[in-house]
Amino acid sequence: MTQTNGRSTAGSQPVPPQPPLSPENAAVIQLTRKDFVSDQEVRWCPGCGDYSILAQTQKVMPDFGYPKENIVFISGIGCSGRLPYYMNTYGFHTIHGRAPTLATGLKAARPDLMVWVITGDGDALSIGGNHVIHSMRRNVDIKLVMFNNRIYGLTKGQASPTSEFGKRTKSTPLGSVDTPIVPLTIALAAEASFVARSVDTHTEHLQGTLERAGRHHGSAFVEVLQNCNIFNDGAWRDFTDREVREDRMLVLEHGKPMIFGKDRDRGIRLDGLRPEVVTIGQDGITEADLLVHDETAADPFLALMLSRMSYPDFPVPVGVLRAVERPTHDRLIAEQIDTAIAKSGAGDLSRVLAGGETWTVE
Amino acid sequence: MTTTTREPESDVAELERVTIRFAGDSGDGMQLTGTQFTRTAAVFGNDISTLPDFPAEIRAPAGSLPGVSGFQISFSSTDIHTPGDQPDVLVAMNPAALKTNIVDLPPGGALIVNSDAFTQQNLNKAAYATNPLTDGSLKAFTVFEIPISTLNERSLDGLDMTSKQKDLTKNFFALGLMFWLYERSMEPTIHWIDSKFSARPVIAEANKRALKAGYAFGETTEIFHTHYRVRPAKLPPGTYRNITGNEATALGFLAASRLAGRPLFYGSYPITPASDILHQLSGYKVFGVKTFQAEDEIAAIGAAIGASYGGSLGLTASSGPGIALKTEAMGLAVMVELPLVVVDVQRAGPSTGMPTKNEQADLLQLMFGRNSDSPVPIVAPATPGECFDLAIEAWRLALKYMTPVAYLSDAFLATGSEPWRIPAIEDLPKIGVENATDAGTFRPYLRDPDTLARPWAVPGTPGLEHRIGGLEKADVTGNVSYDPDNHHRMQTLRAAKIAGIARDIAPLEVFGPETGDLLILGWGSTYGAIRSAVERLQADGRSVAHAHLRHLNPFPANTESVLRSYRRVLIPEVNLGQLLMLIRARYLIDAVGYDRVRGKPFRIAEIVAEAERVLAEARA
Questions:
Q1: Which one, out of A174, A203, B272, B589, has a CA that is 20 to 30 A from the CA of A239?
Q2: Which CATH code for domain A3-256+293-354?
Q3: Minimal Cα–Cα distance from A276 to chain B, Å?
């Protein structure tokens, strides 16, 4: 359990011991990226951001210490949904929006497995919105990676729930009249215990983020800003391109002041209830005036505020917004069973079949 | 009414069978009264059959017509199959209960009314222009007007309770009276009260006093000249309990888990009349049963499929509207060929319909309600007790053939009850389950040549890492395939796998002559009414037989030859002819249907009359 300013950050429920992810296993098993590459030909469009996400996912897998037969990738429908076919682990390509439900059942039935959910902005936040919310609030121990390209790619270019207001697409020729959803805000509101964001092309950062998600016990929500070069090319270019990213993105680091910019001279300060961008050295502002990131804060206020910061008013935060520990769904279920058996002994089927009152016919 | 105290007399009449209906306000405790009478009759050894009939509203306005709740029990010294077409005795606790139930009481039937409840206000609520107790409209019946509220309140003198609390115990007065009338012991109910209200001694005392006061009233007043005796029924030897269909369903799944040696995972979303299965299974933690109340029907089945993928018995249940939401996921289970059982406790529809009322109109929904050709086996229990056996059968098929299986119960089976001979778990056949483990021979869609089932390889098995999903599979390898010939082959294989189950299920049995004028074919909860009707017709010398399907897809292999052994085939259903359509389409047999879709089970007399009509038509 993490402690901040002497306060417990995990709520009132006791955190049961977690099965350790075993780095020693990683040494013994000695898997490499290649072990996680399946024999299936990858069939995304050339130039798609998914290639990078797949590569980083395969790269970090050996680090977790799980034998590959104990890792399962579950996906929904959309371009992202194909990822499990390319991972040489167990994989289940399910139906539109429902991957978190299968993952919930699988993890409850099999706490020994490491379960990843691969989804997209339409799959997770439109048709599957309900399941994302509920898997997060239950703290199901799944690592949900949502590829956000702000468009429906597999159906050839309709507006998605993260498309900008006014966005012209095949289904919205005069512009979308729908206000977009902010995925991280949804995840935080749904009580996800781990919330992070990264970018498909920022390979090192993406690897680090996936690694953190994989090591988290509980519901992890990772938004990956991903480029669909066919139907929505350059959706994130304004702040993710190499030339501008340092000035337009804020890389979050736990315990460190929020500083960004090529010259590391800009930062985020709190002005009343709102964040503001300030320049270190101007008007007497020093590092000490800046907000310090705390991903383990018990309450989600800071993380919620960060989730609302968007370009061009603010630098776009990437990294871990929130990482708190609370009991996972599968462990709580297993504990109730263990407690019941400890109290009353294992079930006697004959007794239950007989029920309450019986009578005998000779 | 004048009553005279006197010595109890021993004027007892023997009856073979009695049907009582308790009817009152939904807050009057009629379900409890009926359940207590049922338990007592069951423990005494009568054969019993019950029909609870309650509104969907939890507490409709007191005294109103929609708020009437009823419970019918038939108990007998002989084997019975239905809760009775018509009650012999109607207990009506208020004018609304009288109004909604009197239509079912035959002339000469006994009517016991709580006369205290026949106030002008209650008469108005029940839309009675005049008081039926005084306007002569009940002449045809034997009416017993008893001021139950007053007598009951008097028996509770001195207890520290409000009048309202006292009034809530009047159902026990009525129950006590019926116990006296039918020579029943109060002991089981007294035990029940003591344990139920152990923390509230005043309430326990009040209920017991009310019960005893009702009994004593019967014993010491002259209004009932006789009381009645219904001897125990001659059931096959064994130890029995009373059981509802939902209870038997839950127990069957628990037993299946033991017989298969696999943990049970139940994903469910609350829905009438299936919720009791969730309540019951959530109490089986000591058996390792994992229950999951999902955010919606889709998540419930999704989680069940996920659990099956992981090696558990993934189970989900709902009623028609929920099944509609689950259909896409059922199609996924068909495609990935994982074991899964989907329970539909049918209720009256379409849409929200009449949630607490009975119907068996989801057969075609389960048969065809998925995109493309997407076959699943369908099983349907015929009686509450049989729900246990069919729950096990559903899992046997799901595991042996690696397929989702639909299990069709209904509101009548779910809430109705009957005596159930408790099986010995060691006598039940084990369900063999194998998981693939050999990486050398494993292919995800390499089928067993006999069953056409694919192997079940669960995550955690080294060397068997593979990918499955809703996209079409290449035969044997299971890789994604758009090959036209492969798709045709896979569609054919999926259909052949399910059709082949016909070789592995019990043949259709016939009750009655092997050939004859008429076969009445049924499925599901119509069993009791059809069987009773056929017994009557046979007693009248008619050449009539009864066959009842437990497997609706595929049909037992001998179905066609059975049907062709009779001049006519009549199919009564609580729908507009769904099995009829399947039978006619499959066998080109000119069967005729009989449908009564009233939210209630069939009456025996309705089926007898229809059978006579068909027989007469055949003769003409």
A1: A174
A2: 3.40.50.970
A3: 39
